[in-house]
Amino acid sequence: MLNADGDVVFEQDGETNFGIHRIDLSSFDGETPIPAGQYSVRVDARDADNKAIQTNSFVRARVDEVETSGLTPLLTIGGQRIPLHQIAAVAA
After folding, report:
1. Which residues contact 44 (CB under 8 A, 6 or more apart)?
2. What is the pLDDT of residue 56?
3. Sequence-ordered list of residues with C-beta below 8 angstroms from that of 12, at least 6 positions apart, any chain
């Protein structure tokens, strides 16, 4: 996980089998909540020959607001305005 300055603030080895893998990013150490801010997630997946594997990452978050006043609908999530076309799914 990188902060808004691009500095690595958290990293973790992940599972190596094929499929969906979930990581709880509510805390870096399992106790202290992550400080508010803008973060990005980078996944470095490799095969048995250490060649890079393409991955997709998704974030599950609460939608705080929906704005439809412009040409592109926007969802506000944690203070970030995300264009609707970047949203994969919405669930209750």
Report:
1. 52
2. 82
3. 23
